[in-house]
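hey
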């Protein structure tokens, strides 16, 4: 359905879950795709092996997205490999339980650094690169329903995901004149390693609150992301696309 031949696309946290589904779909559509992992080399290399069957190139490396120096180094390697980057998907993230009155400063900061600081690190560097090279690029940030309605016991997570929504809207108006599209996808429950334990424990309760009656899988998120970076979405920027089976309806 999509043709991304001649596109150079970077996905953060591409080794597993939603990121891996995006990497695979971009690869299948013919793009050169780069992604990072944090700890899970095996998952990353298995995915790269799978994607090497497609026509585009695949590149991956270890990079902790919460570490400024590592992100700069990783992006430099990707640009060296492909010559340029025209698409950035800020996907890497963690979701860790924490009661606000018991949350340690380190726990708060860890979530802010991985989920939010990383989005600034990648956007800042790659937008500078896009502007320098006059690339009319695309950025998609992965938020969450938690960023729209809040989430009890995950206040730090919800804070990062809400910030990503305002960040997206700010960049969309700032970068529109440069021809750079900035959008956001806000998934609800998706079956991945991140959510698996909770989904198993509370499945009936969760399903009862989902109008479409099923829980999305990573491919259900990858498709809308691909749409937003495709020519079909050339008139869309600053959009927060809800992909949550009707669980949270907000404009
Ligand atoms: P996941 O299955 O846990 O995968 C997380 C990915 O992020 C992995 O590739 C992981 O790398 C990478 N990562 C984690 N910490 C990192 C770090 N410090 N540096 C670099 N990479 C790091 O998660 P997911 O469910 O696919 O979530 C992807 C995104 O969707 C996240 O932003 C999440 O908040 C959002 N989301 C998920 C859901 C859901 O229900 N699953 C719902 C709404 C939004 P390793 O493999 O090396 O660990």
């Amino acid at each position: 359905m999509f043709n991304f031949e001649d596109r150079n696309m970077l996905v953060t946290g591409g080794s597993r879950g939603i990121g891996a589904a995006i990497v695979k779909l971009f690869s299948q559509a013919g793009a050169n795709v780069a992604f990072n992992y944090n700890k899970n080399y095996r998952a990353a290399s298995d995915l790269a092996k799978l994607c090497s069957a497609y026509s585009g190139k695949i590149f991956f490396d270890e990079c902790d997205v919460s570490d400024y120096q590592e992100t700069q180094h990783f992006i430099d390697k990707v640009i060296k490999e492909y010559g340029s980057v025209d698409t950035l998907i800020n996907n890497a993230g963690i979701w860790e339980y924490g009661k606000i009155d018991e949350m340690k400063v380190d726990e708060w900061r860890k979530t802010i650094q991985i989920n939010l600081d990383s989005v600034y690190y990648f956007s800042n560097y790659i937008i500078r690169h896009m502007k320098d090279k006059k690339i009319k690029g695309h950025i998609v940030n992965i938020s969450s329903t938690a960023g729209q309605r809040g989430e009890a016991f995950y206040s730090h997570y919800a804070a990062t995901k809400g910030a990503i929504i305002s960040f997206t809207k700010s960049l969309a108006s700032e970068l529109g004149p440069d021809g750079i599209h900035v959008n956001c996808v806000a998934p609800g429950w998706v079956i991945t390693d991140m959510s698996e334990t909770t989904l198993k424990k509370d499945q009936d309760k969760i399903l009862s609150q989902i109008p479409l009656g099923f829980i999305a899988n990573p491919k259900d998120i990858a498709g809308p992301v691909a749409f937003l970076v495709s020519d079909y979405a050339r008139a869309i920027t600053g959009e927060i696309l809800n992909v949550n089976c009707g669980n949270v309806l907000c404009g």
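The helical segments are 17-28, 41-51, 68-82, 105-132, 146-149, 155-175, 196-208, 218-228. Residues 13-19, 36-40, 43, 63-66, 91-95, 114, 142, 144, 187, 189-190, 192-195 surround NAP (CB under 6 Å).
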